[in-house]
Design goal:
By secondary structure, the chain is mainly alpha-helical. The protein has one domain. The strands form two sheets. Strands 1-2 form a two-stranded antiparallel ribbon. The chain has a two-stranded antiparallel ribbon with strand order 3-4. Strand 3 and strand 4 form a beta hairpin. Helix 6 runs antiparallel to helix 7 and helix 7 packs antiparallel against helix 8.
Length: 250
Amino acid sequence: MHPILFSFGPLRFYSYGALVAIGIFLAVFFLQRHAKAILVSPETMVDLAIATVVSGFIGARIFYIIQFWDYFANAPFDMIKFWQGGLVLYGGLIGGILGFLTFVKLKRLPFLDLLDLFVPAMALAQGFGRIGCFFNGCCFGKPSDLPWAVSFPFLDHAVHPTQLYEALFCFGLAFFLFLLWKRKLRTGWVALAYFVLYPAGRFFLEFFRGNNQAVFLSLTLQQGLSLVFVFVALFSLLYFYGKKRNHRSS
């Protein structure tokens, strides 16, 4: 655990913010590098990435504030201190998707082509964000006596490093999605793969998390949202597959 990288006078530079920034930089670099493959200018891709990131941050912070409203109601100025940690990933996904959709619609860009390219970059950035969580000391796991269990100064027992579990999962997912994208599958299938595989992986990893409380049928809020994302993605998959079959039949 190393939440503060270094201090310069009254200024503090946080590990979480630094890792998130690295993830975003690499994701934008990836998108800019491959923009021309889907006939989008690199400049437009950067603008879209910025709109998506900003709306994603807003959504992630709003969800976090709602989740811990009892604290923020008594400390309203802490609501803006996102660089110290405190982002809910699914809130970021929802906010980012809304920003993405708005920009794409306004600029009349190819929605599914862009989404297919965006999801490997998203998974990559998420991986760095989870490493930031590890250094920040948040999102830790349940008590464990495994050889790779880690200790944090505010806990009296070793725990699963669930932040690193998810980071490795996200990096592997990013690589897999990029390989799918390179194969030039039917438009939209890479995005569907992300919206099935990431929530499924997150659902499983939640069983090792130690700081999320069950809200319904022994499932956490994050697991419930994971199921929603998986069902919506599978429904979309069946819808497009059925539409394709009907088109062939006609």
